[in-house]
Design brief:
Elements lengths: L1 E5 L7 H13 L5 E5 L5 H6 L8 H22 L5 H18 L6 H9 L1 H16 L4 E3 L19 H12 L7 E5 L2 E3 L5 E3 L5 H12 L3 E6 L4 E2 L11 E2 L1 E3 H10 L9 H6 L3 E6 L8 E4 L10 E15 L7 H14 L3 E6 L4 E6 L2 H11 L3 E15 L3 H8 L4 E6 L3 E7 L7
Parallel strand pairs: 1-2, 1-7, 2-4, 3-4, 7-11, 10-12
Antiparallel strand pairs: 5-6, 8-9, 11-12, 13-15, 13-16, 14-15, 16-18, 17-18
Helix pairs in contact: 3-4, 4-6, 11-12
């Protein structure tokens, strides 16, 4: 039994869907579980449809874009039409429009109810296409399998109930079938929809791999494997052939785009190998994350996070940043659901580097503004370098201003002005 995970880039067009299905058909091992993300940049579009984010006119435009994008893919995959699929997709689009026009309640809750439809749309289309080709494909709603608590946008998995669900509801469907389900989304025991964190489809596949005791898990990407840097920034990347579990966990925590931060631990607990392979050329060997002593080959590893904001928080009464202040700040961050990418405190201020999300930052200002000054810099980049040297740091940073930096024996992190790309 194997688990495949396909991200948005691998299903962003009708041609891409055909390629994805071709890869699945060539896999000799059954049963096979296929976890799929939203198509292309659908999640980005759905984020704009959360109530209160954009104006009514903009909302109408985005709804049309969403509908036209998916309809074009359907028209190309089903040139003779498919009334059952047409009705299912239209029903989802109408539901999205209804949710988007509702009065805003809690941003995190509203976010999950709308953004989750990206994966429901993609998997519904793909499952219908596979059936059209005569493939034994079964569509499963992952919200009935993966249960979380009600921490919206960062659902915490209820492992016992999830494992029971997988054994009782999923396993019986997998005999000689290819099962298609969604990444990123989950559900609560009372029927609400949650999500597992941005880019959380990898984590979904990992959860299901753990609960199934899968032979292996494969993430299909548009790159040759786990690279030492994002090829959008580097002209000469190095493919890592073997990567230890713990190293992969560290890199994911720092923001490596190849895997979600929570992905590795569940499969490590059952010694399940994780393969990173290219959907562009499936014949390439890719990379393996498993029980290895060290990375191979040895090389510096680079992670870049753009669109960052650096916030400095200072008490208005000029008191020191002590434990009580930190407790208040962290409580606010947890309540809002802000993930801190880098933090540092001094005697009088606490600084944190986070993704620039205007809605969440405004909420932080509302909670802390009565007692704290919040000062910030925008248009920043967070650079993380594993196995760094002084020369490597100088080469990457160049003459850009460094606003904040931290170094350990292995890892250097620097917050810099986002004004250049790197080509080595």
């Amino acid at each position: 039994m194997k688990v495949f995970k396909f991200g948005g880039a691998s299903v962003n067009s009708a041609e891409a869907v055909r390629n994805m299905v071709s890869i699945v058909r060539q896999e000799p091992t059954t049963p096979l579980l296929v976890v799929v993300s939203a198509m292309g940049k659908t999640t980005n579009l759905l984020e704009k449809l959360v109530p209160g984010v954009v104006s009514p006119n903009e909302r109408t435009t985005h709804l049309s874009q969403l509908s036209n994008y998916h309809q074009q893919i359907i028209d190309e995959l089903f040139p003779h039409g498919c009334s059952e699929l047409h009705n299912a997709i239209n029903g989802m689009l109408q539901r999205i429009a209804h949710l988007s026009s509702a009065v805003p309640t809690s941003y995190n809750y509203d976010y999950d109810q709308i953004v989750s439809y990206g994966e429901l749309l993609s998997t519904t289309i793909i499952a219908a296409y596979m059936k059209e080709l005569g493939i034994n494909a079964v569509w499963v709603d992952v919200r009935k399998l993966i249960y979380t608590d009600s921490t919206y946008r960062e659902g915490r998995v209820e492992w016992k109930q999830t494992s029971d669900n997988v054994q009782s509801k999923l396993l019986p469907l997998m005999h000689n079938n290819i099962v298609i389900t969604q990444g990123f989304i989950a559900g609560t025991a009372d029927g609400s929809t949650t999500t597992l964190g941005r880019e959380g489809s990898d984590y979904s596949a990992s959860i299901l791999s753990f609960c199934l005791g899968a032979e292996s898990m494969t993430i299909w990407k548009d790159v040759a494997g786990f690279l030492n840097a994002d090829p959008k920034f580097f002209s000469n990347t190095v493919k890592i052939d073997h990567l230890p579990y713990n190293e992969a966990i560290e890199l994911a925590y720092y923001g490596a785009s190849v895997i979600h931060p929570k992905t590795v631990k569940p499969i490590q607990n059952k010694s399940i190998n994780l393969y990173i392979k290219s959907f562009v050329d499936p014949s390439m060997p890719g990379s393996t994350i498993g029980n290895f002593d060290s990375i191979s080959p040895q090389t510096p590893l680079y992670i870049f996070k753009r669109n960052q904001i650096l916030i400095s928080i200072l008490p208005k009464d000029f008191s020191f940043i002590a434990e009580d202040n930190l407790q208040t700040i962290f409580a606010a961050l947890a309540h809002i659901g802000i993930r801190v990418n880098l933090m540092q405190n001094s005697a009088l201020s606490f600084s944190l580097c986070i993704d620039n999300n205007e809605v969440l930052i405004n909420q932080l200002q509302e909670i802390l503004g009565d007692h704290y000054h919040l000062r910030y810099n925008t248009d920043l980049e967070l650079i993380t370098i594993r196995y760094y040297t002084a020369n490597v740091i100088q080469q990457i940073v160049g003459n850009r201003q460094v606003l904040l930096q931290q170094r350990s024996r292995i890892t250097a992190q620097l917050v810099v002005s986002d004004t250049m790309s790197i080509a080595l």
